[in-house]
Amino acid sequence: MSITAITLPKSLAIRYALAGWAFFIAENTLLSHNRTYLITSIFSNSETHYHYFYGSLSTLASALTLHGYMKVRNAGPFRKVGRGWLGLAFGLQSLGLIGLSQMAPKLQIPFGYGPGGEEVKNTGPVAPAAPAQFQIRCPFDFKTSDHDGVHGIGRVSRHSQLWSFASFSLGAAAVTASLPQGLCLMGPLAVAVVGGGHQDYRFRRGMGGVLTEEMDRRTSNVPFWAMVMGRQGEVGEVFGKMMGEFKGLNAGVAVATAGLMALKRGRR
């Protein structure tokens, strides 16, 4: 895997690539950090008005980010994208889609063969087993399981949504020849690092949410950090638990989707 070294010019394209994400991160950080002051001193103790203002600025920031991306899409300067980058993109986007898939209801095969629900009359000392039969069920398993709060994708990061999206976007950046476009696609990584870290800072202090000492100790913002540092128990055992808690079929669909995307790129 190699990449030709290119010095980025101070072009309008680079400014477009960075401006939207910079504004998005800044407004989220500043408004959330000064939440109490804004509600009490600016919005007359009205959380509703604060949320209206926050939501309006966040919408504007998102629109500017999208506008910036459209401006830098396929803009120069460019770099050569080799096959090694295709493999990296597949890995990163697989991880991102796996993480996002864990937030959806658990997928299950919608048919099977097993004991039916018909009652069997007990005429002897031992109740006969229900006869096996073909079954059709919902493809989504909405049952929830009890756990101690550190479970599944939550073991990986406190902000798995942000990091999953960042991983997917980094995969897209890896196979983007346009340097400004690739730079713009790295924006979600900055959001995960800065936004996730700042939310933890606020929640530790009870600002807009709560991060208990126990949850803070056992989990991390940076993916896998708490796991490899042994905060959830013996490392091998913890990774085994995580794999057992994962929604396997969801993850399989996620990897298959990333694979199809990689095949499509490889044919270009």
From TrEMBL:
TM region positions: 12-31, 51-69, 81-100
Alphabetical keyword list: Membrane, Transmembrane, Transmembrane helix
Top-level taxonomic group: Eukaryota
UniProt keyword annotation of Transmembrane helix present: yes
Protein name: Uncharacterized protein
